Amino acid sequence: MNVPSLDGPDAQGMLRLSGDWTLAHLPLLEQSVARARGLGVPARVDAGSLGRLDTAGASLLLELVGEAGVGALHGLAPANARLLAAVSGANAQAAPCPAGPGGLRRFVAGIGTALAEVWGGVLRLVAFLGLLLATLPGVLVSPRRWRLTPLVVQIEQTGLNAVPIIALLTFLVGAVVAFLGATVLREFGATLYTVDLIAYSFLREFGVLLTAIMVAGRSGSAFTAQIGSMKAREEIDAIRTLGMSPMDVLVVPRVMALLLALPMLTALAMLAGILGGAVVCALALDISPTMYFARIQEVTELRHFWVGLSKAPVFAVMIALIGCLEGFKVSGSAESVGRHTTSSVVQSIFVVILIDALAAVFFMEMDW
Q: Which residue, among 320, 203, 315, has the nearest Cα to 269 in the 3D structure?
């Protein structure tokens, strides 16, 4: 076993290596390399007399030459050169990432990144809406492209199957609103105005808003999961290979189904909420059903019903678009399907509430 040595530098600043640079001589090699590094990084190293070399010795050699790399070693045997290249590549892969900005800078950078992602999502949604608007007229005027079976299936899944949960939820919320209204208005001797509160709130806001939120969580997530699973199994690529458009096959039937189902569910939710309020008024306020519905007919104008119902098609299109778009974003893994399904629900509910708030301000300013 040849004892390693590190001689120099000479007059030309060259170091000369000799002996076996292996793990057995690691303590001696570390001292030699530290001493040589104290004199500065060598410009050239003569490795012609270098004996055996293992990964430990290769790491120390790379530490010795620093940023100059393997090119600073002259006369290196081919086997040793290959080993040094492998160790250098492994070190490059394992190198720690540079630390990002700290404190306030990282916080501001995070805000900027989040805003950029939100803006990018808005642009993608607008582009997807434009693609739908460009596709829909061609589908409507060409009966060959109609897909009635998927349309009927989606209407059943998004509309008919949602009737029980929508009716029960809005009935209970109507009862809760009646209790709250009665509690507040009883102090002023105006319990009769509880009927007005229930009618106005469900016809204009609660009916369509609660229905849209439920549909976003129920049907919007289903759209994302279905299309995402198809993309993970490469079924969407198969659709394109067959010469069909995924917009025609997957998106248009879902948008049209939700466009038909959500207004009907909204009307059902309005009726269920008003009935829930009627039950509470009859049991707790001594307002008979006859008086209850007569009061609604007397003070409630039909325009309130149309104001609430007019928002349903807008909510339907946005929920269906977001659900389908997030499905197309799935990368292929089950984790990606779950992540985009969650994102679909969150985005849909946020957009629904945002549009509802803007619509409320608009209708108030228009005195509708």
A: 203
